[in-house]
Design a protein that fits this description.
Layout (H helix, E strand, L loop, with lengths): L2 H25 L2 E7 L5 H12 L8 E7 L7 H10 L4 E5 H11 L5 E6 L18 E5 L6 H11 L5 E6 L6 H15 L2 E6 L6 H10 L4 E4 L3 H5 L1 H11 L3 E3 L2 H4 L5 E4 L2 H16 L16 E4 L1 H7 L12
Parallel strand pairs: 1-2, 1-3, 3-4, 4-5, 6-7, 6-8, 8-9, 9-10
Antiparallel strand pairs: 10-11
Length: 319
């Protein structure tokens, strides 16, 4: 073989190897297990859009195994175990509620938790800088700004004095939520009460309790149950003229009075970047837990005017 022929053969082999490697890389299909206590939400669509923006397209180079409890929270451990058996590349957990059973189910599969509530206090993370395991993600900071929500409520409805908290006591992070809200309410209002829901069937009992001891307003702590029942909750408040405040604007869009908190869409889109980094070789413990830096205040003016009828015509109205 001549030197020229040898070089041509070598170049051909290298080119073929290059294209074979690219074809192999292009053919790789990554698998994600998506675990959540609710059903399909707009946040999930935001996550999928974030993945598409990074080059991951479901049905092409991305396969997603959905495990959605739709309010049947007792199924989450079983669903987490299913994802482990399927050997997905990453588990994406919506809130601490799904992340805790995922963490218990595996110490090897990376977990990205979105909108954790008090991730350190609930045992998800050793610290925000170094999580100390196979988990990382984005903290919602929701319990930390309950006092601010109550301040905004007092600004919109200055005469209120009685606040009720509607929450799920079994939801991770709820204890801190309730503690912060009670402290803030006692400083700004005269009385605060607590109403619990543990299953979807409990809402009728909770609503009856709110009507028996009628508050001036209700602060709803967001979790899988209350998010799933958000329209039902808001319809109850509207029907009985009880103003309600929330963490996220998805509730205000359905008729809730006001919300203050981070954007869930932003958190879920940002979660795609965590997934991308891990798929490219990063370890969860090397990715610090992020905290939101931008918060949204949303007020439903129609609901606000209904709660303060004089405000529609009198700019000097004080409650």
């Amino acid at each position: 073989m001549t030197r020229r022929a040898f070089i041509a053969l070598l170049c051909g082999m290298m080119t073929a190897s290059h294209f074979a490697a690219r074809a192999q890389q292009a053919a790789r299909v990554y698998s994600i297990g998506y675990l959540a206590g609710s059903n399909r939400t707009p946040q999930l669509d935001a996550f999928l859009q974030g993945m598409r923006d990074l080059g991951y397209v479901e049905g092409q180079n991305l396969a997603i195994e959905y495990q959605l409890a739709a309010g049947q929270l007792q199924r989450l451990p079983e669903m987490a175990a299913n994802l482990v058996r399927l050997k997905v590349d990453i588990i994406v957990a919506g809130t601490s509620l799904a992340a805790l059973p995922a963490k218990k189910a595996t110490t090897t599969i990376p977990i990205v938790v979105l909108a954790s509530h008090d991730g350190i206090g609930t045992g998800l993370f050793a610290s925000l800088a170094r999580t100390g395991g196979n988990i990382t993600g984005i903290e919602s900071l929701a319990p930390d700004i309950d006092a601010k929500r109550i301040e905004f409520l007092k600004g919109v409805l200055p005469k209120i004095s009685r606040l009720a908290l509607l929450y799920t006591p079994t939801d991770p992070g709820s204890e801190r939520h309730v503690g912060n809200a009670v402290d803030a309410a006692r400083a700004l209002l005269s009385t605060v009460s607590k109403v619990e829901v543990r299953t979807p069937a409990d809402f009728d009992v909770a609503f009856a309790a709110l009507l028996r001891d009628r508050p001036d307003a209700v602060l709803v702590v967001t979790d899988a149950l209350t998010f799933l029942a958000r329209k039902r909750i808001i319809d109850f408040g509207t029907e009985h003229g009880i103003p309600m405040i929330f963490e996220f604007k998805q509730f205000v869009e359905l008729g809730g009075l006001l919300s203050y908190g981070p954007s869930l869409g932003d958190i879920w889109r940002r979660g795609a970047h965590y997934v991308d980094k891990i798929l490219k070789g990063a370890k969860p413990d090397d990715l610090p837990v992020e905290q939101p830096t931008k918060f949204e205040l949303a007020i439903n003016l129609k609901t606000a005017n209904a709660a303060r009828p004089c405000c529609a015509t009198n700019a000097a109205c004080t409650g």
